[in-house]
Design a protein that fits this description.
Number of domains: 1
Distance between the termini: 32 Å
Structural class: mainly alpha
Radius of gyration: 17 Å
Helix content: 55-70%
Largest sheet: 2 strands, antiparallel
Protein backbone atom coordinates (compact mmCIF):
# COMPACT_ATOMS: atom_id res chain seq x y z
CA UNK A 1 0.00 0.00 0.00
CA UNK A 2 1.42 3.36 -1.05
CA UNK A 3 -0.91 6.02 -2.42
CA UNK A 4 -3.83 4.02 -0.99
CA UNK A 5 -2.73 5.37 2.40
CA UNK A 6 -3.67 8.85 1.20
CA UNK A 7 -7.33 7.82 0.69
CA UNK A 8 -8.42 8.53 4.30
CA UNK A 9 -6.77 11.96 4.06
CA UNK A 10 -8.87 12.93 1.04
CA UNK A 11 -12.06 11.60 2.63
CA UNK A 12 -11.37 13.35 5.93
CA UNK A 13 -10.47 16.63 4.19
CA UNK A 14 -14.06 16.87 2.95
CA UNK A 15 -15.24 17.54 6.53
CA UNK A 16 -15.83 21.26 7.22
CA UNK A 17 -13.72 21.16 10.39
CA UNK A 18 -10.92 18.99 9.05
CA UNK A 19 -7.32 20.21 9.05
CA UNK A 20 -5.75 21.17 5.74
CA UNK A 21 -5.35 18.33 3.26
CA UNK A 22 -1.57 18.61 3.43
CA UNK A 23 -1.64 18.05 7.18
CA UNK A 24 -3.94 15.07 6.71
CA UNK A 25 -1.56 13.59 4.14
CA UNK A 26 1.17 13.84 6.79
CA UNK A 27 -1.23 12.10 9.17
CA UNK A 28 -1.92 9.32 6.68
CA UNK A 29 1.81 8.58 6.36
CA UNK A 30 2.92 9.58 9.87
CA UNK A 31 3.53 5.94 10.79
CA UNK A 32 5.91 5.57 7.83
CA UNK A 33 7.49 8.96 8.53
CA UNK A 34 8.24 7.58 11.96
CA UNK A 35 9.38 4.20 10.70
CA UNK A 36 11.89 5.46 8.15
CA UNK A 37 13.04 8.17 10.53
CA UNK A 38 13.68 5.63 13.29
CA UNK A 39 15.26 3.23 10.80
CA UNK A 40 17.81 5.89 9.85
CA UNK A 41 19.06 5.70 13.44
CA UNK A 42 18.78 1.91 13.76
CA UNK A 43 15.92 2.07 16.25
CA UNK A 44 13.62 0.13 13.94
CA UNK A 45 14.93 -2.10 11.18
CA UNK A 46 14.10 -3.73 7.88
CA UNK A 47 16.01 -5.51 5.14
CA UNK A 48 15.61 -6.23 1.47
CA UNK A 49 14.69 -9.85 0.85
CA UNK A 50 13.84 -10.46 -2.83
CA UNK A 51 10.82 -12.67 -3.19
CA UNK A 52 9.53 -12.23 0.36
CA UNK A 53 6.32 -11.10 -1.34
CA UNK A 54 5.38 -10.92 -5.00
CA UNK A 55 5.11 -7.13 -5.05
CA UNK A 56 7.43 -5.87 -2.33
CA UNK A 57 10.92 -7.00 -1.21
CA UNK A 58 10.83 -5.23 2.17
CA UNK A 59 11.29 -7.59 5.10
CA UNK A 60 9.76 -5.48 7.88
CA UNK A 61 10.93 -7.59 10.77
CA UNK A 62 11.50 -4.96 13.47
CA UNK A 63 9.08 -2.03 13.83
CA UNK A 64 7.47 -2.22 17.29
CA UNK A 65 7.18 1.53 17.85
CA UNK A 66 5.39 2.44 14.63
CA UNK A 67 3.65 -0.60 13.20
CA UNK A 68 2.19 -2.13 16.31
CA UNK A 69 -1.47 -1.34 16.95
CA UNK A 70 -0.59 0.26 20.29
CA UNK A 71 2.30 2.17 18.74
CA UNK A 72 0.07 3.50 15.95
CA UNK A 73 -2.48 4.57 18.53
CA UNK A 74 0.16 6.52 20.46
CA UNK A 75 1.31 8.27 17.26
CA UNK A 76 -2.36 9.07 16.54
CA UNK A 77 -2.91 10.53 20.02
CA UNK A 78 0.24 12.62 19.75
CA UNK A 79 -0.78 13.95 16.34
CA UNK A 80 -4.29 14.75 17.55
CA UNK A 81 -2.84 16.58 20.54
CA UNK A 82 -0.67 18.72 18.28
CA UNK A 83 -3.64 19.55 16.05
CA UNK A 84 -5.70 20.49 19.10
CA UNK A 85 -2.91 22.64 20.54
CA UNK A 86 -2.80 24.59 17.29
CA UNK A 87 -6.51 24.72 16.41
CA UNK A 88 -8.27 24.39 19.80
CA UNK A 89 -10.80 22.25 17.91
CA UNK A 90 -11.51 18.75 19.22
CA UNK A 91 -13.18 17.68 15.99
CA UNK A 92 -10.14 18.61 13.91
CA UNK A 93 -7.93 16.80 16.41
CA UNK A 94 -10.04 13.65 16.32
CA UNK A 95 -10.13 13.69 12.51
CA UNK A 96 -6.35 13.99 12.36
CA UNK A 97 -5.84 11.21 14.91
CA UNK A 98 -8.26 8.91 13.09
CA UNK A 99 -6.40 9.38 9.80
CA UNK A 100 -3.12 8.43 11.50
CA UNK A 101 -4.66 5.24 12.88
CA UNK A 102 -6.00 4.14 9.47
CA UNK A 103 -2.42 3.47 8.38
CA UNK A 104 -2.14 0.33 10.52
CA UNK A 105 -5.40 -1.14 9.24
CA UNK A 106 -4.55 -0.49 5.58
CA UNK A 107 -1.14 -2.07 6.13
CA UNK A 108 -2.88 -5.07 7.69
CA UNK A 109 -4.56 -5.75 4.34
CA UNK A 110 -1.39 -5.90 2.23
CA UNK A 111 1.48 -6.76 4.59
CA UNK A 112 2.55 -10.27 5.37
CA UNK A 113 2.66 -11.23 9.05
CA UNK A 114 4.86 -8.39 10.30
CA UNK A 115 2.37 -6.21 12.18
CA UNK A 116 1.90 -6.63 15.91
CA UNK A 117 -0.54 -5.56 18.56
CA UNK A 118 2.04 -4.29 21.05
CA UNK A 119 5.48 -4.88 19.49
CA UNK A 120 5.87 -8.64 19.92
CA UNK A 121 4.27 -11.83 18.62
CA UNK A 122 1.70 -12.74 17.47
CA UNK A 123 2.14 -11.00 14.13
CA UNK A 124 -0.58 -10.18 11.64
CA UNK A 125 -1.03 -9.41 7.94
CA UNK A 126 -3.41 -10.63 5.23
CA UNK A 127 -0.63 -10.66 2.63
CA UNK A 128 -2.27 -9.09 -0.43
CA UNK A 129 1.21 -8.09 -1.64
CA UNK A 130 1.34 -11.71 -2.79
CA UNK A 131 -1.75 -11.19 -4.94
CA UNK A 132 -1.13 -8.23 -7.28
CA UNK A 133 -4.30 -8.96 -9.28
CA UNK A 134 -6.21 -8.02 -6.12
CA UNK A 135 -3.87 -5.52 -4.45
CA UNK A 136 -3.31 -3.28 -7.46
CA UNK A 137 -7.00 -2.73 -8.41
CA UNK A 138 -7.85 -2.31 -4.73
CA UNK A 139 -5.32 0.49 -4.34
CA UNK A 140 -6.56 2.18 -7.50
CA UNK A 141 -10.18 1.98 -6.35
CA UNK A 142 -9.32 3.37 -2.91
CA UNK A 143 -7.46 6.42 -4.18
CA UNK A 144 -9.72 7.15 -7.16
CA UNK A 145 -12.88 6.94 -5.06
CA UNK A 146 -11.44 9.11 -2.28
CA UNK A 147 -10.14 11.81 -4.65
CA UNK A 148 -13.49 11.83 -6.47
CA UNK A 149 -15.27 12.19 -3.11
CA UNK A 150 -12.99 15.08 -2.13
CA UNK A 151 -13.59 16.86 -5.44
CA UNK A 152 -17.36 16.35 -5.13
CA UNK A 153 -17.41 17.78 -1.60
CA UNK A 154 -15.22 20.81 -2.32
CA UNK A 155 -15.05 23.61 -4.84
CA UNK A 156 -12.28 25.85 -6.09
CA UNK A 157 -11.71 29.06 -4.22
CA UNK A 158 -12.61 32.16 -6.22
CA UNK A 159 -9.77 33.02 -8.55
CA UNK A 160 -7.87 29.78 -8.00
CA UNK A 161 -6.71 27.63 -10.89
CA UNK A 162 -6.79 23.87 -11.33
CA UNK A 163 -3.01 23.54 -11.21
CA UNK A 164 -2.90 22.12 -7.67
CA UNK A 165 -5.43 19.39 -8.44
CA UNK A 166 -3.63 18.46 -11.65
CA UNK A 167 -0.31 18.41 -9.80
CA UNK A 168 -1.72 16.14 -7.10
CA UNK A 169 -3.24 13.70 -9.58
CA UNK A 170 -0.02 13.63 -11.60
CA UNK A 171 2.02 13.08 -8.46
CA UNK A 172 -0.16 10.21 -7.29
CA UNK A 173 0.09 8.51 -10.68
CA UNK A 174 3.86 8.99 -10.79
CA UNK A 175 4.39 7.71 -7.25
CA UNK A 176 2.29 4.61 -7.80
CA UNK A 177 3.88 3.83 -11.16
CA UNK A 178 7.31 4.12 -9.54
CA UNK A 179 6.26 1.89 -6.66
CA UNK A 180 4.92 -0.81 -8.95
CA UNK A 181 7.24 -0.74 -11.93
CA UNK A 182 10.58 0.82 -10.98
CA UNK A 183 13.51 -1.51 -10.18
CA UNK A 184 13.26 -2.73 -6.61
CA UNK A 185 15.83 -1.53 -4.06
CA UNK A 186 18.83 -3.78 -3.54
CA UNK A 187 19.66 -2.70 0.00
CA UNK A 188 18.01 -1.00 2.94
CA UNK A 189 20.43 1.91 2.97
CA UNK A 190 20.02 5.52 4.08
CA UNK A 191 19.36 6.77 0.53
CA UNK A 192 16.29 4.54 0.25
CA UNK A 193 14.93 5.79 3.58
CA UNK A 194 15.57 9.42 2.71
CA UNK A 195 13.88 8.98 -0.69
CA UNK A 196 10.81 7.55 1.04
CA UNK A 197 10.68 10.45 3.51
CA UNK A 198 11.14 12.94 0.68
CA UNK A 199 8.29 11.43 -1.32
CA UNK A 200 5.92 11.71 1.65
CA UNK A 201 7.00 15.32 2.17
CA UNK A 202 6.41 16.24 -1.49
CA UNK A 203 2.93 14.72 -1.34
CA UNK A 204 2.17 16.72 1.81
CA UNK A 205 3.38 19.96 0.19
CA UNK A 206 1.20 19.44 -2.88
CA UNK A 207 -1.67 18.47 -0.59
CA UNK A 208 -1.25 21.71 1.34
CA UNK A 209 -1.38 23.65 -1.92
CA UNK A 210 -4.48 21.77 -3.04
CA UNK A 211 -6.14 22.18 0.35
CA UNK A 212 -5.61 25.93 0.23
CA UNK A 213 -7.06 26.15 -3.27
CA UNK A 214 -10.35 24.43 -2.45
CA UNK A 215 -13.15 24.95 0.07
CA UNK A 216 -15.54 22.40 1.52
CA UNK A 217 -19.10 22.70 0.24
CA UNK A 218 -21.41 23.24 3.21
Amino acid sequence: MYIGHFAPAFIAAAHPKAPNLGLLIIASQLIDFGFFGLALFGIENFRITPGITTMNPLDLYDMPYTHSLVGALLWAIAFGAIVYAYSKDWIAALIGAAVVETHWYLDLIVHTKDLTLAGSAPKFGFGLWNYPAIAMPLECILICASVAFYIAKTHKNIGSKSHALCAMIGLLLAFQAFDWFAPKPESADASFMIMALLSFSIAAAIGWWLGNSRKVVR
